[in-house]
Model the fold of this input.
Amino acid sequence: MADGSRSMRAAVLHAPHEIVVEERPVPRPEPHEVLVRVGSVGLCGSDVHYYEHGRIGDHVLRAPMVLGHEAGGEVVGRGDRVSRHDLGQRVSLEPGVPCLACSHCLTGRYNLCPRMRFFATPPVDGAFCEYVVLHEAFAHPVPDTMSDDSAALLEPLSVGVWACTRARVGKGSRVLVTGSGPVGLVAMQTALALGAAEVVVSDVNTARLELARELGATEVVDVGRTGLTESSFEADVLLECSGNPTATAQGVRRVGRAGRVVLVGMGGDEVALPLAHIQQHELDVTGTFRYANTWPTAIALASGEVELDRLVTHRFGLDEVEEALTLPARDPSAVKPVVHPQP
Amino acid sequence: MADGSRSMRAAVLHAPHEIVVEERPVPRPEPHEVLVRVGSVGLCGSDVHYYEHGRIGDHVLRAPMVLGHEAGGEVVGRGDRVSRHDLGQRVSLEPGVPCLACSHCLTGRYNLCPRMRFFATPPVDGAFCEYVVLHEAFAHPVPDTMSDDSAALLEPLSVGVWACTRARVGKGSRVLVTGSGPVGLVAMQTALALGAAEVVVSDVNTARLELARELGATEVVDVGRTGLTESSFEADVLLECSGNPTATAQGVRRVGRAGRVVLVGMGGDEVALPLAHIQQHELDVTGTFRYANTWPTAIALASGEVELDRLVTHRFGLDEVEEALTLPARDPSAVKPVVHPQP
Amino acid sequence: MADGSRSMRAAVLHAPHEIVVEERPVPRPEPHEVLVRVGSVGLCGSDVHYYEHGRIGDHVLRAPMVLGHEAGGEVVGRGDRVSRHDLGQRVSLEPGVPCLACSHCLTGRYNLCPRMRFFATPPVDGAFCEYVVLHEAFAHPVPDTMSDDSAALLEPLSVGVWACTRARVGKGSRVLVTGSGPVGLVAMQTALALGAAEVVVSDVNTARLELARELGATEVVDVGRTGLTESSFEADVLLECSGNPTATAQGVRRVGRAGRVVLVGMGGDEVALPLAHIQQHELDVTGTFRYANTWPTAIALASGEVELDRLVTHRFGLDEVEEALTLPARDPSAVKPVVHPQP
Amino acid sequence: MADGSRSMRAAVLHAPHEIVVEERPVPRPEPHEVLVRVGSVGLCGSDVHYYEHGRIGDHVLRAPMVLGHEAGGEVVGRGDRVSRHDLGQRVSLEPGVPCLACSHCLTGRYNLCPRMRFFATPPVDGAFCEYVVLHEAFAHPVPDTMSDDSAALLEPLSVGVWACTRARVGKGSRVLVTGSGPVGLVAMQTALALGAAEVVVSDVNTARLELARELGATEVVDVGRTGLTESSFEADVLLECSGNPTATAQGVRRVGRAGRVVLVGMGGDEVALPLAHIQQHELDVTGTFRYANTWPTAIALASGEVELDRLVTHRFGLDEVEEALTLPARDPSAVKPVVHPQP
Done:
């Protein structure tokens, strides 16, 4: 970066429904950290939720915070002991940095680290700003053929990769995806890219179902018209991406013996699950919490079969972050808005 | 067996609350089958349920049927092509014989075989009778030091082994067992034998909790007095053996990050599970349906750390099967009644 | 089949270098078996070995036997209790039928069954004949769009699938395949279809290397000119398909930390492996013995990314089996000859 | 520690066969590090090898270095940000600290980290001295009932735990351990503690075989008198702890279908392995390189079934390190000498 530019602009959430674009100092990279000029940031439902409610569960906004955790950009500064990246390296940001040394980190499940510091989760600032710093190991190099938007959207893609990993999706799998929001759409594409023979997607939003079909779904079910219970489809895998209790329960019943259920969508504190069906078919049910070690696969997918740019429906500047945050409520055709923080 | 004895006595369920002890022909072993003189048969909650209701879910009694599926005995006849057992071999019976050739059988999960024929599940007769036939591969040799009762109770022990297997219980595991009925008690003993460092057992039945403690539980919780929610115990594994919805939901919340939940107890069609907890801790939740390939481990356990005879609280003859079936409702101190069918 | 045709023609190996085409009775299907009219049979190195030496290791030809174990055809008869196939169903034959009830069968590794009966392994006849019988579970339905030759070659493809399965090849894997014979070529294609990012193939046969390149290898190494030791390629996976000791040892050294080595090629009783490299990199090394549960994946692959017909270089009638068996020695351009047994 | 004591004594290897006990500054803990007063240090074959040859493979002594990497002691100082240990906490030291952030570290196989810094591996000093510093995550708390010697010997025990983990030793396993040196003896005890039904130990050293028997081996084989090839024992698992090529090859041939082989003993650059046996039985063969995430299990084992103090045959002070290093060559009865560095 130009040495003189020691301040930057950031869109800061001060309270629910109150975003202020401010000047802030450009952060300085600590040892092992790189400074990244942010090129694109995807807008996620959790950003909207913080904007509207100032909290998600136990995570409460107690001080002004920058939102945004799906980011791609370019390395423009290096802290001490950085060895992986040269200046100019384009990167996708994995937005959570764990402690690296607890039992979860040391056994490869760092996403469960209780000391995780995650972008846009209080009190950690996110990426709706011009520059961020990050541990170099979590700034993943991307090929120059990949757009900044796609680099940013490797984060939601990672959610899909993690879901498919835990669901053991492979060659020939029959997959049901409930919910065709951004996560459902990347989960669906990931399943196809990993060899799934059939991927059925259900939702009530016909525009999103149409997009699912264009992106390769072998069948779409408009559950506003036809219930999942009327389908005879027997899935090996359910990727629940809606958070809707009815979709969850009905989806689980579509999964056959020895099948896997991954609960990705957030649907509240408790959900009723079909116990007898789970037992008699010995389903493996799990929830996902972010992801671990997914970027290499996500990069490989986004360099090939998975189309991330297709998900981007709207683009905003840093001054328009509030407009971006209110878009989903206004426009049901919105899939994935992105923010480009550079002037 | 003596060649002359071509008939035998069997306790036959004709309708709910109607057991008749009848003379029946001794069954003839088909190829690969052995004829077993039954020494002891454990009484299971499912037997009681068929006796009281004539059905379990979709399995409906449509013709007279013999109950009993936890059996041990001695090989007294061999069909064609039997190669494993000599006459006189003492055996424990694995009471379900799958088709052996479907995709579930061929991938090692034969318990999910849709063509499974299982003792005392309509229309297949069980073991409350003097003789049964069984595929030799499912008549497991036991050491002569093992009692007939223990040989019979390898079946419920297998339920515990399967639960611990799917829960990946190992050295140092911290295990919560909700429900200290026969299955909870074998699950608890199995967990300890597999190296669990702590095994906490909860129930409302103080007599059973006392037995749990005697059998090695590191802590017992009387949930009639102290809720699980008041415990600070963080489990790696929940073995849910009560079928009680409150125990299930509270038990799941006691399981920490990367933990495993195995739902063994039957608790109805649906159950409310703490979704957000499952997601944030990435719990692996599964149900068990019977067991697969458990007898070798069960035999090793019952030859060592696991005490099965301690579970036997009452013994009955074949004429007393009805008395045995009504015992649990009459006597809360009953843990595992057994039937000895020989005169 | 026409009811009158009760005899068929078969190419029978009587002694090394002595094949006689004889009339034999059409076999009758036992219970669970189907009668299959053979459409195409691939010729394998093991057939050539029996033809030349009358034995492979401990398996010795002691009576006349029909060779050929890679077969596709059509169901033309059904034994008792056959439930899966109608007459006219086109099938690919999995040529080994295990006992189904030993500990290996019951745990899903039926390929290790000590009672396996395998086509063209003494004393079991193979498929160089007009009709064979087989347990219906091992006659796998194929789509009508698949040629008989491809249906036959699902057998070698299964070898590749099994190798990739045991090597855990997945999205982004870097794979080295040593040996580009038929097995190397299907292993290579399978690895690519399962998402491998790089697949390097080595051999001394430049024609086969050229075919490897056409089929998608990302790099080929002519080890007659350039040693593997001069390559800087670091593989995640080695699929050793040559049986050559030098290729094996050099190939293993190309595998990096936490990598997997699958020894597919038969290279004699003992082989020198780089112990220190295996230890310091904690490689997982295994050999494969046939395959288990591979047909569903193989069918999915052959219906999509994997081209089996491209491997077929020569076609012969039943009277030309001897010519087929001597072809590989005569013609280094031969990849996979097939025999079409029907007149 | 007393604040005034700013220097300590250390036994320093200057060149092969040249140990000098010197005064050195007590090291200062960096952030996340603790200062540990060393109570006991086990002597390992690698220490002897460095003492005699000044190198192990590519690891060459280029500057004076302290040997010793099996250590237990007490926390007497805390660097910044240390949160786990209070002063006075007794600990066992895991002597290798990885980078924590490479792909191997992040996937739970930190033992394969290429930037690992490991005690007594040039240029990193070891523990034959009064004080060492270590990342707090690698200083594992031990119960006060555990001796310093046992705390030190958790390190070799971890080698055994890792071997058994990778070999999937469990309830009922039949295990062959070739070599009854310290590693063989802990591997044997670990296998027993994890439920192995049979553990056969082979060696040529009758004293060690006798110790193996006392520690629970179900059978010992003096291969100086009876070859392994004459045994009919069929193992599920081989834990090769001798590094001897003959033992390795013969041991592998004793492993049955679907068995596992773990090559722990260092036996040179290449070793001849029975390829056909590995293939036909589909053995999983791997080597181990140190260990990962083993201390919790090792602590649980050493608190129960595994006797570490029994391995200690000789004790030395810091001035006697050279005597300790030459002991194994002088005294075949030596199993595990330990050094107590405190005055």
